Amino acid sequence: MKAAFSQTVSADDEGRRLDRLLRIILKETALSALHKALRKGEIRVNGLRRKPDYRCLEGDRIEYSRGILPSTDSVPDSTGKHPVENSLSIVLETSDLLFINKPSGLLVHDGPGSLDAQVRAYLADRLEASLAFRPGPLHRLDRNTSGLITFSRSLAGAMAFSAALRRGAVRKTYLAIVEGRLESDECWRDSLSRDTELRRSFVDSSRTSPDKPVEATEAKEAITDIHPIASNGSITLAAIRLLTGRTHQIRAQGSHHGHPLLGDTKYGGTRCDQPYYLHAWKLSFDEQLFPDLPRELSAPFPPHFDKKILSSFSNPEKEVYLILRKFRFQEGT
Asked: Are residues 42 and 185 in the same domain?
């Protein structure tokens, strides 16, 4: 067989079945056609015939002829390049993970201008080409929430970070400006439901009770710690720690407990110069995930957040920024 095209198996592809990699490389070709091509030797690995369940090794060359491509197919591109202008604010880049300080107003997904597209364009010439692995976000941030978001640079990074999230070994701390005066620390423990049509979460008060366990199909438990940093009587600057990760958790619980985010009209907040004030401030890790990853990362506040802090809270008595520099949630509280 004279091979017209070839793809090289990377470390992130190692151990995958040959037929599954082919479904990624030749996604427009029917599975039956791929199996037929393997039987006839029109697809080979390192010049040799292989069965569909062959486990690929790093460095293997998957070779195939133009004849197995549907007429609408072009040469597959495994680089993931995208012509996007980049202006990423990188907090830390390791061999496995990329931490970005996302600006408010930028979508993580959807469209060529999204953060996901920008990251893929940035990494296109920095990562070894992979047939199956694509870098992507490992947790969510709403469009109008600024701050730290994590992207994978390798399959190992994606798996380790996602597993740590499931174990609760990754702590997320936010900074928010909420309406009303918070006098002391609070822990909000509620049952949160989601209206998919309205794209809005809400607290189900009928289930927010220790005597009524949450049914997974109807609502999910949401636990949020909140610590006031400073207040001017009408609004409060607060540090918030998520112990669960529900959609719109801070926004919905804040509204329910009488402290909606300033500006968050969707959840009962008062309209202001910003959609709302919420910044993903810190990520801390209960264990050493990778040797080159520190145990805590933080993202600087965006300019509009700094401006609001200075105009609303900062004076010699309160020393807000000194408090913020030293602030840590106490473990076990």
From this structure: no
Query: How large is the angle between the packed helices 18-25 and 31-40, nearest 10 degrees?
Result: 120
- 239: β partners: 175, 227
Q: List the end-to-end C-alpha distance of the chain, in Å, as a whole number.
A: 66
The predicted-structure confidence for 223-264, as pLDDT tens digits, reads as follows 999 999 999 989 999 999 999 989 999 999 999 999 999 999
Distance CA 79, CA 311 (A): 47
Q: Note whether 174 and 318 are same-domain residues.
A: yes
Contacts of 57 (CB under 8 A, 6+ apart): 9, 14
- Nearest CA to 90 out of 144, 153, 140 is that of 153
Beta bridge partners of 73: none
Count: domains in the chain: 3
Residue type, 129: A
Query: Measured between alpha carbons, how far is residue 164 from residues 117, 185, 289 in Å?
Result: 25, 27, 8
Q: Residue 221's beta-bridge partner residues?
A: 191
- Within-domain flag for 296: no
Q: What are phi and psi of 193, to 5 degrees?
A: -110, 165
**68-124 pLDDT, tens digit each:** 765 444 444 444 443 344 578 999 999 999 999 999 999 998 777 899 999 988 998
Report how far residue 113's alpha carbon sits from residue 92's, in angstroms, rounded to the nearest whole number. Answer: 22
In a domain, 250, yes or no: yes
Q: What is the pTM of this model?
A: 0.74
In-domain check, residue 79? no
Distance CA 318, CA 213 (A): 42
Say if residues 255 and 189 touch (Cβ distance below 8 Å): no
User: Which residues of the chain are under the pLDDT cut of 50?
Assistant: 71-85, 210-217
| Phi, psi (deg, nearest 5) at residue 111 | 100, 160
Q: Given this model, what pLDDT does residue 226 score?
A: 97
Q: What pLDDT does 290 receive? A: 85
Measured CA to CA, the distance from residue 247 to residue 91 in angstroms comes to 24
State residue 73's pLDDT score.
43
CA 161 to chain centre: 10
CATH of the domain at 159: 3.30.2350.10
